[in-house]
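Late entry, written up from scratch paper. The run itself happened at the end of the previous shift, but nothing got recorded in the book at the time, so transcribing now.
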Amino acid sequence: MGLLTIAGSAQASPFYAPPPPEEHREGLSGSAELGYTNLSGNTDSQTLIAKGRLTWLTGDWTHTLRGEVRNVSRDGDTSAEQYLVAGRERYDLEGPHYVFGFARWDRDRFSGYDQQFTTIGGYGRDLLDNEHHRLSLEAGPGYRFDRIEGKEDASLGVAYGALAYEWTFSETASLEQELSVEATDDNTTSRSLTSLTARLNAHLALKLSHEIKDTSRPPEEAEARTDHTTSASLLYNW
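Output as recorded:
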């Protein structure tokens, strides 16, 4: 079994993207994560997870680009295959207020959808932002395009809301919880990311995370309604 994971200072969040910390507010900051496992014996399986993110600032604007690839195979048969590309803009207003907009394309081979494109814009507010606690809420309307093989394409309005909380409970450890909901007339997609990070030194940290994605009333072709992803990774900060 082999495993390789490298990640950077930007948070590997599936939906939320705050500005980078003060020490990374000049130039580019980003993250790269690559995970690979290979099990052989009674069961032959391979898992590949690759993630990347870039963040940069222009005045009060925060620009973020990210991509993800996941592939799992067991005994020669693919059991998971996911791709995601997204871009996000955030503009800071006076005080703790900001406006945002993002666009996301994703394809999950076993979700029942051939592909989905989502774009959302709205208002956000940083309710807490101090040494130990950080809490942000955001909400807004959006649009989603669904393509299902063999069926008519669907265009749907979206009502979106999200929460992000970070608790820095020691000089070297923090706990993060992120939640988002995207509701349409057809179904509701909920996402959750829980992570615990322990810093080893100025550049390295260990991170444990659990991600959940749930879709109410998925297409009949979907393999399951809820996806769970648990990972352990080594983070490299720059």
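Residues 1-14 have pLDDT under 50 and may be disordered.
(Scratch paper discarded after transcription.)
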